[in-house]
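Obj.: predict assembly geometry.
Materials: sequence records (below).
Method: joint structure prediction, all chains together.
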Amino acid sequence: MRKTSPKTLSILGGALSLCLATAVAADTLQEVMKARNLTEQNVIAAAKTYVPSGGRDEFVAFSSGGQSGQVIVYGIPSMRLLKYIGVFTPEPWQGYGFDAESKAVLDEGRIDGRDITWGDTHHPALSETDGVYDGQFLFINDKSNPRIAVIDLKDFETKQIVVNPLLRNEHGGAFVTPNTDYIIEGSQYPTPLGHEFAPLSDFNEKYRGAITYWKFNREKGRIEPENSFAVEVPPYSQDLSDAGKVASDGWSFTNSFCSERYVGGIESGRPPFEAGCSQKDTDLMHVINWRKAEQLFKEGKAKKVNGMAVIPIDLAAKEGVLFLIPEPKSPHGVDVSPDGKYIIVSGKLDSHTWVFSWDKIKGLIDRKEYAEKDPYGIPVLDMQKSLHKQVEVGLGPLHTQYDKTPCVVYTSVYVDSQVTKWNYCEGKVLDTVPVHYNIGHLMTMEGDSREPQGKYLVAMNKLAIDRFNPVGPLHPQSHQLIDISGPKMQVLYDMPVPLGEPHYVVAIRASKLKPEVRYKIGTDSRSGEQSPYATRAGSERIERSGKTVHVYGTLIRSHITPEIIEVNEGDEVFVHLTNQERAQDQTHGFTVGSYNVNLSVEPGKTATAHFVADKSGVYPYYCTEFCSALHLEMEGYLMVLPKGGTKDQAKMKEGATYAKADYDKQVEQCTATQKVIDSVVGFITSHNYKDFPLVVGMVEDATDQLNFAVGPKKKAEDAATAQDWQNATLWAQQWFLYQVKTADIGLRAKAYLEQNGAKLVTVPAKK
Amino acid sequence: MRKTSPKTLSILGGALSLCLATAVAADTLQEVMKARNLTEQNVIAAAKTYVPSGGRDEFVAFSSGGQSGQVIVYGIPSMRLLKYIGVFTPEPWQGYGFDAESKAVLDEGRIDGRDITWGDTHHPALSETDGVYDGQFLFINDKSNPRIAVIDLKDFETKQIVVNPLLRNEHGGAFVTPNTDYIIEGSQYPTPLGHEFAPLSDFNEKYRGAITYWKFNREKGRIEPENSFAVEVPPYSQDLSDAGKVASDGWSFTNSFCSERYVGGIESGRPPFEAGCSQKDTDLMHVINWRKAEQLFKEGKAKKVNGMAVIPIDLAAKEGVLFLIPEPKSPHGVDVSPDGKYIIVSGKLDSHTWVFSWDKIKGLIDRKEYAEKDPYGIPVLDMQKSLHKQVEVGLGPLHTQYDKTPCVVYTSVYVDSQVTKWNYCEGKVLDTVPVHYNIGHLMTMEGDSREPQGKYLVAMNKLAIDRFNPVGPLHPQSHQLIDISGPKMQVLYDMPVPLGEPHYVVAIRASKLKPEVRYKIGTDSRSGEQSPYATRAGSERIERSGKTVHVYGTLIRSHITPEIIEVNEGDEVFVHLTNQERAQDQTHGFTVGSYNVNLSVEPGKTATAHFVADKSGVYPYYCTEFCSALHLEMEGYLMVLPKGGTKDQAKMKEGATYAKADYDKQVEQCTATQKVIDSVVGFITSHNYKDFPLVVGMVEDATDQLNFAVGPKKKAEDAATAQDWQNATLWAQQWFLYQVKTADIGLRAKAYLEQNGAKLVTVPAKK
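Observations (raw structure tokens):
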């Protein structure tokens, strides 16, 4: 026998236990590896990313959806997609853009009176407190239609959209200042500010960019346009931004990519934009003292352009608000170090990444030591005097993120399709790893905050080509998870993105997120206020005023109240529905066929459908969420009476009739079911169920359901007394259905306790 | 030392190799398990689902998105989401509902002149040949707005939407007949047929359902409404359908859940629908001889209702088209066995699943042995005489799928939150496994076809509750992957569904799908024809006729031709763009800010943006897909001239000017870059690159790019001859950019060859 070292032996001991002796799975790991052609490295990668059934991910990522106009939420390391949040694009599963409440949010994003039914989302930003992610809010920009959206992480819903009145598009947003006082939105392609027209021959004179600082009111959870301002900048095609922090707090940085100010025209024989915009060796980084700009704004020195306060270039230059520094050409990413002392910029058409020193920049500014002024009178600092290092990281470097380890960073390298790990203090490359293919941005855990968490990196590759099962000419994007915990980077997982073209992602430690699972009953979730249309069970009603009909209804397992709505052809109808459920995940939907009505009403929420009933007919409505065993029966009829028609006065004819025997049989079933419920209750209460918050919630819900049974039971008994066997039988059935709902939850709770090792604490009393 | 059996030793040998000695990852599996708190069973599950970087899944699943209105595509066993296909809901990433071509598809789905911007998708169906999935088409229904959509699996795009002119909603579709002759669409909530009005007091007399058989023309890839027909059925609230096959070919089955014909009205004191619709012990299965119905239709015996041919109930009853059989109450799922000899029906409110025998049913029909007639004169067969078995599978059984092993099936059990594996020939339960929570449908690989593939099962759970990182009140759905290859079922993976509420899924062996990666240049992908607006490079133009402007443009890395478009305020503008790329995954996007213009143009596609330029101003446009290193420079300007304004006559002023030295420097760079290209080409051609189809494609693309460099090079040289250093420099830059694109692809090809073990076949010639 071969000699084995003690260390190998201990590994052998561990590995030995991998062959399972249980009856559950006869497979050994080795058999699975052989059958699925997995290498040992594959198995380790699988084990590093797999989150077992019911488990949680350590980090939660928020990705822009690109032109899908949404935000994508996923878990790390499992790379499981958790949610698409509707932001700029209507999304029916969430009812987003379908209920009147969310339509009001989307309406804030109208431009020139036009609905914009999508957005080109690029850069999400998490709210920060003292430069550290606090898990409260998420902000995201729309590049094509210059807008910023606010998402509340209490419920993962979009609450506000603001339109930039200066710009026609943007790119360098959303980035937040260290205490989320401001959300930065930087322009991209120059236009005349304020939506004016000017011919292209006036490009240098009349076209401009602007860096906007949107004031955020954290308590209200809303941007305040009236307290926001912008700094005018030259037509240099601004690109990405970042806020200074710690050492550089109060400043922000925005780079540019066509400081040549070139205007193409290939159709008329001019060289195209791509040639004219990448000719010079350097572009210009904008260095902005936003705190000084804020002061000028507060002093009333800004001028108003299309309603927005703007610090003009000349004032900015004169007052020490705006500076420029040459940077590598066509850069993408201007990334401030956790201590705020360095700014790393990569030029896509330069193989070097440049490390700027904030100390040096600040020194030059303080000493007013300018190399020159640009054509607009803005002081330009000397590049060499501002630089700490230039480091060769590969062809086409793009974006840099910070590691937990000081001085260590990761840069995405587009042309070489790789990630380069390097030390920016010493200017030394440490490692590279190939990615597939043509990486754009990359992201480390909380890697653009003051406290990067290390551990994982996500490569956002722009081409997937052959990496996944083929799905036609339009390929999914490819995000690769990379383990950065060791000295060598290791690709763990390839995730296809099934919808959207993400540009940038931010990831937060999952434990910082504390979303709610229900609303206070009657909440308009978009305003965060009690809805004026909130309705409690028992107070449902239909109110008519002229041709306007307001329906105040409720939703609960498994019926919609009212079940019949009669309106006249041509009526304007508002259906306000309040979900009466308290139970987690007990969402109800609502649709009226053919009228484009579709709501998602989570527990406690009040939502409104609004439509004109312009064609007579019979329109079934129903709950669209498979909410309960009786889900299909959660239905109703909208009767749109023809013009000149009259209200149905006839009595409803019964399709099936019931006699005393039916009632007795139903009561018998109820009695038997109650015994099942009692036994389940006995099991639960005899165990330490109070140690399981989820089960406590279930018990609460089950109790609700059983309480609901009281009413129908009484109605059944009253009808029986009156020998009305039809109603007696059906109300007894309804009593039974509440029992079924109780049992459903009870059985789920019991199974949960059994599966999670609940302990017997008291012996259930014998019946 | 303890004795070990030879088998254990061999496992030890295998396990030993799990501790990696390489420098890449110092971790051992044991360390990872400890750090991540994984059990041995977890690691086996991980290994059974993990697909390594660049690997492929064995099966591809197509899931309905529920009220998201889309189809979700994912891989099995990795459970990675591959694509959301826009079907009934506009989706901007795909340009679906934004380009004129796809708007035409969505317009087919308008109802009563109204845009329906979502759908409630429930049941996808794959096309079949002889009862076996053939991978050609996918069909999906819209429950709320009765529609069927056709998706071509050549490009995963929606090609057609048909509206059912009889119904106001539906449920029992899409299901295909064994050769995809017909797509079945069954009604749900009864209404007067043909969109008429009738009061609810006429429910029994005037409300009806209908089972529609949409004729599918496989060559055209389109449904033919004029060759389609429906069978009228009573107001029994039809539920799911399935087509007979093999033994039962020519027949179809549809169940029902409110054969009580109850109409609720809780708001006026009547017991709710849920009570009245679940009172009887049985509902009614509809058994339809569709081949006989087709014959009657072809003989002209159908009557037209709102344009659709309908076989009335009396004719259907008389001609032996329609029969009824009592089935367990409130069922969901009527699932025909692979040999067509059994039909399995589960009643949600019955703990038994019922196995009907086709032989027995057919015998009763052939002998005209009817138990009774229903109130509409339809023959009702005796339940007991039709039954093969009744098997107790748990509380709330729902849907059944077939295993590869004969007689073995899996049934989803809603209230008990479990999957039950059982033998329907012998009526014996074999195994159960808990799922989380409240499972709706379930699905095995090709499990509703004539040739189920076994191996995996997916549980579509309706409640996720606590299973994933929390994301607010609206939870993701939860799909669990279950290994069914052994005697005991084993849960392998929990997948959250981030968008939509899937109802049913179908999965096909991945190797049967052969989608294309590009279109023939100039294709209107929605019609499948050459677009009348197809444009080749060099023939770009702007045509104006009155106030209508047609732009014929092209897209290629990295410019849009034209780069400047001038129109007058109020013009109606059509921008037709053709993607000139041949390279896989080289999609370009196109947006004009503020005008809600957004296209996704895959290689070869022609797509059209249509808008009215109703507000003067300067509107940048750009490519929305990060397509190349010069992606940001892929831009242009739409100039909307103010009314009364005049066309810009001034010469463009240059922001930067260039001299001979700039030109010389640029040429020097081009010469150096060409050397890099030559060395990459040398590497590639000296290896067996032709054995790698992906690399062959890349070489083709790289050759294209290098050929594109010829024109700019000549322009640069001509300008230099004329001493026009501005144009000489910029065209030389463009020449260089094509070199960069060539090098980008070449380096990717080189890396691919290196990473995939290409062999040196010839020694590159020395330069």
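Conclusions so far: The longest helix of chain A spans residues 725-755.
To do: check interface contacts against the pulldown list.
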